[in-house]
Amino acid sequence: MKEKILVVDDSSDLRELAKAILKMQDYEVTVAEDGKKALAIFDRISPDLVISDIAMPEMDGFAFLEAVRSREDGNAVPFLFLSAYSQKVNLSQARRLAVDDYLFKPFDAQELLDAVRVRLDRRQAVQLFDTREAHLQTVSLMANVIEARDPYTRGHIDRVCDIALRFGKHLGWNESSLTVLEFGAILHDIGKIVVPSELLTKEGSFTPEEWAIMRKHPEKGAEMINGIDHLKPAIPFILYHHERWDGSGYPFGLKGEKIPLGGRVLALADFYDAVSSDRPYHDGQPKETTLKMIKEESGILFDPYLVSKFFEIADDLP
Ligand SMILES: [Fe+2]
What we know:
The protein folds into two domains: 4-127, 3-Layer(aba) Sandwich (Rossmann fold); 132-316, Hypothetical protein af1432 (Orthogonal Bundle), CATH 1.10.3210. Helices cover 53% and strands 8% of the residues. The chain has 15 helices and five strands. Strands 2-1-3-4-5 form a five-stranded parallel β-sheet, with helices on both faces. α2 (35-45) runs parallel beside α3, α7 packs antiparallel against α8 and α13 (261-276) packs antiparallel against α14. The longest helix is centred in the middle third of the chain and has 22 residues, at 109-130. It is elongated and about 75 Å long. Bound molecules: fe (ii) ion (FE2). Fe (ii) ion (FE2) binds next to loops.
């Protein structure tokens, strides 16, 4: 879904210039010529970010910002002022109204795009973090449904999540990336909801037909999450955790760095736990054996760089 930006300025040249620049980056841009018209549009489209002039007829930028901030859904919307240097004196007023950034005319395209991107990314990170606890509970509930159907993997999700988070921290990922990783690890097998429970608990090997069903779980999981905006960033973990470095994995048979990083990271955590814990078809292997298997598969099943980083946390692994 495209991110929506509302541009407000009484100069039509400036509106059109800003619109053209923003559209190059594939934003959905709506324009208005004063605060009053902009407010009506704001209520209609709920933009992801607002860029507004200060001096405008009807309703000026300050009154518009104040009106936006008084709305329930306007409190956290990034709001950027775009004004002439001569209006600089008003900045303290803008600050009181919690403006997020100022740009001064004339601005250049890169400056505008950078300011917009930084604010949109920041908002996404904050939103994800603010709602993390509530979402974690929902997500855990979904994952518990899977585990309830598959007694052999009980505890697998918690362990994979723990291993993946240790690994992500060691790789230097930031807070919001770790939150997404956590969701991804909890949900990685959510698509198994479509796999009949006889299959999940089967002790012998699978027939080709049974394999075909089993191999659908990453795509099914990604489809389920695709409709939930705040969980979408977790899709790479779900969709690519069975891809393998040499292209022998599924669902797409991607090779090497074509496999999104999230998938490569989770593949290691998932494999480590799957091998080291008891399953219907095998007894859990000791830690040393599991690590030895991972080392042997470095550059074959797993990203060799990630394997070397994984070994750096080997002492901390369960
Ligand atoms: Fe899986």
